[in-house]
Amino acid sequence: MNGLDPTDLRILQLLQQDASLTNKDIAGKLHKSTATIHERIRKLKNQGYIKKIVAILDRKKIDKTLIAFSQVLLNEHTASTLKQFEEEVTKFPEVMECFQMTGTFDFILRIATSNMDEYTDFYRNKLATLPNITTVQSFFVLSETKSDTAYPL
After folding, report:
1. Could you give the dihedral angle defined by the CA atoms of residues 83, 86, 91 and 92, in that order, rounded to the nearest 10 degrees?
2. How far apart (Å, rounded) are the C-alpha atoms in residues 125 and 83?
3. pLDDT tens, 23-56?
4. How many helices, marked H, and strands, marked E, lie in the chain?
5. Do the beta carbons of residue 108 and residue 71 sit within 8 Å?
6. pLDDT bucket at 77, cuts 50 / 70 / 90
7. Does the pTM of the predicted model rise above 0.85?
8. Is the C or the N end of the chain the one with fewer CB within 10 Å?
9. Where are the domain boundaries for CATH 3.30.70.920 in the chain?
10. CATH code 1.10.10.10 region(s) in the chain
11. Distance between first and last Cα of the chain
12. Read out DSSP for 97-137?
């Protein structure tokens, strides 16, 4: 991790665990001044290490209990058709993540809906309307053993 010293790494670790920590909280944990922590966090944001700070919601409490992983195969693989698919699919609020993949399928999507009816509506009226799709194969989550957002540093 180019240009990151142990203090920067520790700041990133702390923020990944709890982004609501104040500069003062972090300064106390790291035995640094609040001004130093403020400046380092600003630098980490400007350099793109911190993309955004968000609240992670309990999906069950907001009724997004059905999670699907959908593998998508496209007809064509030109740069423009791949880009067009990415631009269109990322507009759908049900699509939480979109990854271009190696192997048999071109993309894998993580889709969050309230129930199977909502997923069916998403599939029929949004995903299946996109041009150039050959195959969609979906897998539904039965249980969630681990869900982490923090990268090991």
Report:
1. 150
2. 21
3. 999 999 999 999 999 999 999 999 999 999 999 9
4. 5, 4
5. yes
6. very high
7. yes
8. N
9. 66-140
10. 6-46
11. 9
12. EEEE-SSS-SEEEEEEESSHHHHHHHHHHTGGGSTTEEEEE
Q: Which of 112, 119, 63 is nearest to 127 (CA)?
A: 119
CB of 112 within 8 A of CB of 64? yes
Q: In this structure, what token pair is assigned to residue 50? A: 């911190």
Q: Right CATH number for 6-46 from 1.10.10.10, 3.40.50.1820, 2.30.40.10, 1.25.40.10?
A: 1.10.10.10
CATH number of the 66-140 domain: 3.30.70.920
Tokens 């909502």 — which residue?
118
Q: For residue 94, give the amino acid letter.
A: E
